[in-house]
Design brief:
Length: 505
């Protein structure tokens, strides 16, 4: 009882810094180490310190026995970096990788997998709460180095992870370990495997790859696919548990997901496709808003808004062509790995896909250009069979591969391929709008209600700025009813018109 009282030492923190308090708490705790019973009290939360200490510098710090053990055994989750709440320093905080001697996961010879339990693990229900708090709390206030010091990587692997509890553990480890590494981005885990796009500090890329190699043998087939442009593409770290990695609504038991299509490297892809005299069946597995700003020459581009629709379209296109060669591509490869396996399972003999997708092809072209320049030849000699931009699902909304502009402004119809979201946050419509229309319609989609709304908000903002100079720049958008709510991927008016006409006929 005495030890428990000691270990739950309460320290009023107001005049001291959090880090100082943390250190003094740790010193105090280690002096009572010998008298402490090494069993956690049932029902005690294990991670109280982290959430309390980060919610405010003036909160009370207190510990529980299980937390004490976590700290005392030189915790693997980096509690010190978890306590730095403000982006006060632009330098990377110190990083010590989790111990390589006890990997987070294991694969047994029979193919079964095991994911270790985090320290202080008290069941899946507890982890749900801890993960929710990690996602909500300090994970989003990490001290980032300047954006240009990041590289963006995407990677995926299909791997069955049957137990929900394992998914929660993976989520927990990613949230804590990657946060300590200062990685931001989006990671989806599901019972099917993993799919991720992240931005990692340049200096930590090797650490990051080592981390996967050491701790995640269950994700041994991952290939890290770097984006064309450097810089940070995300603001926060999100690790989510999903039902399906790519949603096509097809039951995994109806086909063999490991019956994968043939992978072509960007170079092989380029050579095969540019040497063919008659265009082969080449399917763009992306949505219309992705393929409209850039695509491979002669590609069939289904007019679809979701991957599910695209899979249906693909099955239609390929019907009766089981003996022909089918080529397919998408942004990073995951959609083709899945839909290619579906085709192969349905008796298609030759299905080929672009490894690493358009992103990898873009890098290949970029490298070719650099090589040409280094050899004193003009970079315009490099012929790309992909025209236009590669749409990306991050704040860049696309990176150019060639200078061709394939799309038009959705409002006025001039050539333009820059995506943006309607500035009325309640609308948020993804659209292509030229600089002139941006200015004319206040950055909105041009609909009357959106223009009205943004005008009203700007007026309101002006008043707030005037009356409360201290609040300037803050978005005071709360408490205003949106006129309409839709999150659509917009089609140019012409396409919509054609569709209506078709429907009439
Ligand atoms: Zn326009
Ligand atoms: Zn709008």
């Amino acid at each position: 009882m005495l030890a428990a009282t000691h270990s739950r030492a309460l320290i009023a923190s107001s005049p001291l810094s959090t880090r100082h308090l943390f250190n003094s708490l740790r010193t105090r705790l280690s002096t009572v180490a010998s008298s402490l019973p090494h069993q956690p009290i049932p029902g005690q939360p294990a991670f109280t310190l982290f959430s309390r200490a980060t919610s405010s510098n003036n909160s009370l710090l207190y510990s529980t026995p299980s937390l004490f053990r976590t700290l005392h055994s030189a915790s693997t989750i980096g509690p010190e970096s978890a306590l730095s709440t403000k982006p006060s320093s632009k330098r990377l905080p110190a990083y010590s990788p989790p111990s390589p001697s006890s990997p987070h996961s294991q694969v047994f010879p029979d193919g079964n997998i095991k994911v270790q339990s985090p320290l202080g693990f008290e069941g899946a229900d507890g982890l749900v709460k801890v993960n929710a708090r990690l996602l909500r709390d300090y994970i989003q206030r990490t001290p980032h180095p300047p954006s240009k010091d990041y590289v963006t990587l995407s990677y995926y692997q299909f791997r069955p992870i049957p137990h929900k509890e394992d998914l929660l553990k993976i989520q927990y480890f990613f949230l804590t370990d990657l946060r300590a590494m200062d990685v931001v981005g989006r990671i989806y885990v599901s019972s099917e495997g993993i799919n991720a796009q992240i931005s990692c500090p340049k200096d930590r890329v090797e650490d990051f790859k080592d981390y996967y190699a050491t701790h995640w043998p269950i994700f041994d087939k991952i290939r890290f696919n770097p984006a064309m442009s450097e810089g940070k593409a995300f603001k926060k770290l999100h690790v989510r548990i999903k039902g399906q990695l790519v949603a096509d609504g097809i039951d995994n038991s109806t086909f063999d997901i490991y019956n994968e299509p043939t992978y072509l490297t960007p170079e092989e892809w380029h050579k095969e496709l540019s040497s063919q005299t008659t265009p082969p069946i080449l399917i763009d597995m992306r949505n219309h808003y992705e393929s409209s700003i850039g695509h491979f020459e002669h590609a069939i581009r289904p007019d679809v808004t979701t991957f599910k629709e695209n899979v249906d379209a693909m099955l239609d296109i390929c019907k009766g062509k089981e003996d022909q060669e089918i080529y397919m591509y998408c942004t990073g490869g995951i959609r083709c790995t899945r839909s290619g396996a579906l085709l192969k399972s349905n008796g298609f003999k030759s299905v080929k896909m672009l490894r690493g997708g358009v992103t990898a092809y873009g890098r290949y072209i970029q490298d070719q250009r650099e090589q040409h320049v280094a050899e004193g030849r003009g970079e315009e000699e490099v012929k790309s069979i992909y025209k236009g931009k590669n749409f990306t699902f991050d704040k860049r909304l696309g990176e150019p591969i060639t200078d061709e502009v394939l799309a038009t402004c959705h409002i006025c119809g001039t050539a333009c391929d820059t995506y943006s979201n309607c500035s009325n946050m309640a609308c948020n419509l993804l659209m292509i709008s030229c600089p002139a229309c941006q200015q004319k319609h206040q950055g909105t989609c041009g609909s009357g209600s959106c223009v009205e709304m943004v005008k009203e908000l700007n007026e309101k903002q002006k008043k707030i700025d005037k009356n409360h100079p201290g609040l300037r720049g803050m978005k005071a958008r709360l408490g205003i009813q949106p006129f309409h709510e839709h999150r659509l991927r917009v089609r140019p008016l012409k396409v919509m018109e054609n569709r209506r006409n078709k429907a009439r006929i």
